Amino acid sequence: MSWLALLLVGIGCADLVHSVRPTRFVPGGIAAAVTLGLGLLAGLTGWPDLLAVLVLAAYACAWERVVALGFRAHRAVVPLAMLAAGLVVVVLLSGQAADAAGPYADWLAQADAPVLAGLEPDRALLLAGVLLVQLSTGNVLVRLVLSATGTMRPDAAGGLSGPARTLKGGRLLGPLERLFILGLGLAGNLTAAAIVVAAKGLLRWPELSSPAEQDKVHRLTEYFLVGSFVSWLVPLAGLVLLG
């Protein structure tokens, strides 16, 4: 589980830093440094673990560049395949990973925060990775899937005019709704997430129904539905990983 957590932390950091500072090498470098530093603080210093931490740091660094090239070259399937392969390999090898310990586990045991009380080091590390992925990485995955499936952005498709030309606020609302769904799931109230789904549909209805041309409305609706379902799958997948 510790290797899986580091994988999520790495890509989460890379995407988050890129959203703030989209330079060429800074996001990947910071993500690699965070992955390596966290692995060492978690006591993953045995040879199998140290090798895995180095590979995961390189993976986090490469992820940011592969995503950028995927968007630039219109090959969104490449970063999606990279992520899927990374997750499969890490899950298959998870039995070889040592439990998180070291200074990180000592700090967690002494942390005077109710939300951290009783959390095992591995689970807390995985929770941090899952939370990070809900932020910018969730938005990146939505864009990758939209690009890979050929679901064109309404404003890029042309022809829509007025306030409904684009769906506004997705980059901010996406992380908020993913964190909300994840929080409801962790609290055992996942069914309440239906409120989020219903509310989002109602709030978007004016934008989805305002243009007169039905074919363009269908494009807008497809973009909204595909993006929303991919976005919701991110916290649901996180809940599955957290068990």
Which secondary structure elements does this structure contain, and how are they paired or packed?
Layout: H1 2-20, H2 26-41, H3 47-72, H4 77-92, H5 102-110, H6 121-148, H7 154-157, H8 170-186, H9 193-209, H10 214-242
Helix pairs in contact: 1-2, 1-3, 1-6, 2-3, 3-4, 6-8, 6-10, 8-10
Task: Characterise the protein shown here.
By secondary structure, the chain is an all-alpha fold. The protein folds into 2 domains: 2-148, no CATH class; 163-242. The protein is built from 10 helices and no strands. The chain has helices spanning 2-20, 26-41, 47-72, 77-92, 102-110, 121-148, 154-157, 170-186, 193-209, 214-242. Helix 3 (47-72) packs antiparallel against helix 4. 34% of the residues are buried.
Count of DSSP helices? 10
The run of helices and strands is HHHHHHHHHH
Strand content: under 5%
End-to-end gap? 11 Å
Unreliable stretches (pLDDT < 50, length at least 5) are 157-167
Shape call: globular
Strand count: 0
Number of domains: 2
Helix content: over 70%
Transmembrane segments: 29-56, 77-98, 124-146, 179-203, 223-242
Keywords: Membrane, Transmembrane, Transmembrane helix
Quick recap:
With 243 residues, the protein is mainly alpha-helical. The protein is 74% helix and 0% strand.
Which key terms come to mind for this protein?
10 helices, mainly alpha, 243 residues, 0% strand, 2 domains
